[in-house]
Write a structure and sequence with these properties.
The chain is built from six helices and seven strands. It is an alpha/beta fold. The chain has one domain. It has a seven-stranded mixed β-sheet with strand order 1-7-6-2-5-3-4. Strand 3, helix 2 and strand 4 form a beta-alpha-beta unit.
């Protein structure tokens, strides 16, 4: 496949307590990497994944949090309750705050689930940027060789008002992601030049 990866900002992951990763989501790669970096983390996933034989049973067995993306307030309540339990068990949470994979360079609104977790779970939130979609685009089997970079940004500690948190989170993720996407595209252009 020719895909390498680099982790930046590992020092921004809290070491003394579980935390919440709020990550950009651009490709299937994103759903694999966090279990390598953060042992025994619980992903927030769409409930439909639990319906797949074997895979769904595995997700349930390892304690992933399956949510109904169209469930409104009921879903938020369940998300908060399940996340509090995982955090109390010492597990960190991984959530994709836009709720779906987004192609590089596109803007998709951030959903209220991450703000609810921030306000109600009293855990630090680590904004996380990446450029995986440049090399492993969504809805395609074609992958480009290159270096996927994942960058953990400084944690946002509990205590901000909901709107201030949401604005800070989105600005941090989107700014860093745009930078990483630019870095990836520049590397692709250099590699594509004839000698």
């Amino acid at each position: 496949m020719g895909i390498e990866y680099e982790i930046r900002g590992r020092e921004n992951l809290p070491k003394d307590r579980p935390f919440i990763i709020a990550s950009k989501h651009q490709s299937a790669w994103d759903t694999l990497i966090y279990n390598i970096i953060i042992l025994d983390c619980a992903y927030v996933v769409k409930r439909e994944l639990f319906w797949f034989p074997f895979f769904g049973w595995f997700l349930w067995r390892v304690g992933m949090i399956g949510i109904d993306r169209g469930g409104g307030a009921r879903t938020i309540k369940y998300l908060v309750t399940a996340s509090k339990q995982r955090l109390a068990d010492g597990r960190s949470i991984v959530i994709f705050p836009q709720g779906t994979r987004t192609a590089p360079g596109t803007q998709v609104p951030y959903l209220p689930g991450i703000s609810a977790l921030y306000v109600q779970c009293a855990a630090p939130v680590v904004p996380t940027a990446l450029n995986s979609g440049v090399f492993w685009p969504r809805r395609t089997i074609i992958k480009r060789p290159g270096k996927v970079i994942i960058e953990f940004l400084p944690a946002i500690d509990p205590g901000l008002p909901r709107r201030a948190f949401a604005a800070q989170l989105e600005a941090a993720i989107e700014t860093a992601t745009a930078h990483l996407e630019g870095e990836a595209r520049a590397a692709l252009e250099i590699n594509a030049r004839p000698d």
